[in-house]
Structure to design on (272 residues):
């Protein structure tokens, strides 16, 4: 069974835990992705998993040759775009992602990198943003005008309406949002990146625990500082985690205050 909570994923997970339900994580720092393939591993995981299991694999997956694999990737995302609503913009958005998934498959791109490449990230971010333009536009004409404005490298300025609506609070919120996304995204990347193959640990060595005194360890062959490090006391070792939780709590409160102060936003999928 798959659950689609879209942009309300974290809220739904928290409310579900309060009532005894445990839902899957739906968004996993998607904006640190370095390829469109990686983006769909991190973005809307419930939907991408459903598309993979019930469309891509049903169409044949990668079991029927190279060209059929590319076709299946493209058709899966095309239908995924149609799932979002009865509008040609959603279909084009799905085709856009399907095309890049097929291209990355064709060139054999490494979609599980161990190091962060700024150029690959920037290119992927550009592709994603270009996709969001067509996804959010009312029609193809409006999308074309937006693309024209994005890539016209002449005189650039905000419209009078945008300048009138732009406030210091909005700018500060945007800066905090970007810094937060960058910090947690990079932390997630370096914490969960694919591990290198290492030699198995020596079973004769013991694992130090918080509060251990190096002089109290008398296992043969164990050298403190070389084979293992004695960890500091629990509260000393975990103070960064406590500080991070306090910071996240403050950001949460600030987000609630910002949401309560902003104007009404209509439902995005009004044509669904």
């Amino acid at each position: 069974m798959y659950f689609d909570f879209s942009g309300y994923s974290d809220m739904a997970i928290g409310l579900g835990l309060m009532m005894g339900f445990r839902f899957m994580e739906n968004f996993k720092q998607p904006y640190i992705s370095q390829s469109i393939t990686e983006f769909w591993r991190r973005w809307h995981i419930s939907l991408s998993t459903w598309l993979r299991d019930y469309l891509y694999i049903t169409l044949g997956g990668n079991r029927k040759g190279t060209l059929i694999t590319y076709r299946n990737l493209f058709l899966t995302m095309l239908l995924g775009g149609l799932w979002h609503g009865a509008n040609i913009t959603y279909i084009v958005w799905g085709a856009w992602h399907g095309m890049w998934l097929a291209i990355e498959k064709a060139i054999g791109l490494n979609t599980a990198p161990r190091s962060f490449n700024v150029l690959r990230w920037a290119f992927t971010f550009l592709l994603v943003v270009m996709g969001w333009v067509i996804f959010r536009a009312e029609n193809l004409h409006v999308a074309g005008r937006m693309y024209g404005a994005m890539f016209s490298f002449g005189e650039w300025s905000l419209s009078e309406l945008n300048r009138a609506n732009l406030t210091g609070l909005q700018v500060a919120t945007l800066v905090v949002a970007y810094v937060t996304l960058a910090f947690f995204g990079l932390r997630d990347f370096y914490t969960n990146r694919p591990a290198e193959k290492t030699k198995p640990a020596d079973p004769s060595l013991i694992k130090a625990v918080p509060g251990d005194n190096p002089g109290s360890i008398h296992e043969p062959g164990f050298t403190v500082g070389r084979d293992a490090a004695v960890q500091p006391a629990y509260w000393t070792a975990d103070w960064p985690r406590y500080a991070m939780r306090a910071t996240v709590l403050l950001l949460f409160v600030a987000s609630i205050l910002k949401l309560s102060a902003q104007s009404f936003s209509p439902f995005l999928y009004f044509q669904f």
Residues 29-156 form one domain. Residues 1-7, 217-227 have pLDDT under 50 and may be disordered. The chain has three domains: 29-156, 159-189, 204-262. The chain has eleven helices and no strands.
